[in-house]
Amino acid sequence: MLIVKKFGGSSVADKEKIYNVAKRCIEDYKKGNDVVVVLSAMGKSTDHLIAQAKEINPNASKREIDMLMTTGEQISVTLMAMAIDALGVPSVSLNAFQVAMHTTSKYGSARLKKIDSDRIKNELASKKIVVVTGFQGINKFDDFTTLGRGGSDTTAVAIASALHADLCEIYTDVDGVYTADPRVVPTAKKLNEITYDEMLELATLGAGVLHNRSVEMAKKYGVELIVRSSLNKNEGTLVKEVCKMEKMLVSGVVADKNAARIAVLGLEDSPGIAFKLFNHLARHNVNVDIILQSVGRNGTKDISFTVAEDDLDEAVGILERHRNTSLHWENIDIEKDVAKVSIVGAGMMTNAGVAAKMFEALYNIGVNIKMISTSEIRVTVLIDEKHVNKAVQAIHEKFVLGE
Ligand code: ADP
Ligand code: ASP
Ligand code: MG
User: Fold this and answer.
1) 383 within a domain of the structure (yes/no)
2) Which residues constitute the domain of residue 160?
3) Fewer Cβ in 10 A, N or C end of the chain?
4) Could you identify the atom of ligand 2 that is nearest to the CA of residue 155?
């Protein structure tokens, strides 16, 4: 079998953990498997590198920040190859250039386009454990890029797909995917299985356990994922197309504090206004989530929407630049201390009253809902950020633990 094993930062945080991972990889190797290991940077080292860059130059270019961040993964892969070697198994570490992992140009959030598999295959053929840097790529300018925070998961899925691996395991510091972040909701339950669609919603809505692009790619190329702990041998969670397990109404509750609300007041109430507004934002890659439009009165209307808090200043700047040219508005109102809380579950499609039950859970703890949006398999509400943990707990209790 060909196995791709990805280990996150906490799983390689120190010497002892590096040896623990090295031993797990060797176990598979000794059973006669080909083993490719994808690693994140050790512990919190990516955060430290970003902090160092900010200290030197708060306006450092994204190119230089990527160049710096990629060093984190280069350290972990080399140390891992040394550890495996010390345990008597031949190993080689490779970075994005050596493998040739091609991405789009955008520094900080590049997308993987193509991974050359020859170098990895040759190293496997010479019976080495191949240790590859996660999170990084190279663009058409021959520069390093990065895939966005948490992007090593996506590297692992892309390599598993390029090599037609039999197994892609994502090792982390929890036992699998839970019904809520187990650090926020101690009663959260581990899921044995989850569909790609549900996992993609959860990851996109803020469940940090998997990078959302990794799930998108796994679905596209049919790579089944196992999320499990590097600290024990428990079974983990299988992420795949269809699940046959017990159909829970809600598979997960998730919160995202990185949200802000913008209300554009006094827009002209005529055709094309929403198009112009959201088109300006889209052209600058500002993603919009929940959208609410008021009923028109006296020829004007209001449009409110949420963006990631990181994009707030840019979004407001764009709206201001277009005020009195293509867009006319009277006022902009913004709110930063808001958070999105969502429930996700394939079972919702065929069950009425799921949203009402979520709203009831919030009503019972006196939390006001500011905005609502729904899709086939999710309901999202916007609430005050200060209530977010108790809201997640109350909703989780209502759906997952039963009343
Ligand atoms: P790694 O460094 O291994 O990539 P991450 O910190 O990126 O680890 O992801 C694991 C973390 O994701 C867990 O420690 C947990 O707190 C968080 N998490 C958030 N939502 C969930 C969830 N629904 N199930 C499991 N873990 C979750
Ligand atoms: N080291 C990178 C980060 O912290 C990538 C990863 O962990 O997946 O975001
Ligand atoms: Mg991660």
Assistant:
1) no
2) 2-173
3) C
4) 8
Average the pLDDT over 161-185 and give the result: 97
Domain count for the chain, please give it.
1
Alpha-carbon Rg for the chain, nearest whole angstrom, is 23
Q: How far is the CA of 151 from the centre of ligand 2 (A)?
A: 6
Q: Is the pLDDT of residue 14 over 80?
A: yes
Global pTM? 0.93
Residue of 7, 40, 144 with the most ligand 2 atoms within 8 Å of its CB, for mutation: 40
Does residue 132 belong to any structural domain of this protein? yes
Mutational pocket test of ligand 1: of 171, 172, 396, the residue with most ligand atoms within 8 Å of the beta carbon: 172
Q: Would residue 399 count as lying in a domain?
A: no
Q: State whether the Cα torsion 25-28-32-35 is positive or negative.
A: negative
Ligand 2 centre and the CA of 203: distance in Å? Answer: 15
Question: β-strand 167-172 against 2-7: which pairing, if any?
Answer: parallel
What pLDDT sits at residue 244?
73
Characterize 343-367 residue by residue with b for buried, 16 or more Cβ atoms within 10 angstroms of its Cβ, and e for exposed.
bbbbbbeeeeebbebbbebbeeeeb
Whether 23 maps to a domain, the answer reads yes
Give the confidence band of 348 by pLDDT, cuts at 50, 70, 90.
confident
DSSP line for 214-242? HHHHHHHHT--EEEEESSS----EEEES-
pLDDT at site 53? 97
**pLDDT score of 119:** 98
Read off the CATH number of the domain in which 149 is found. 3.40.1160.10
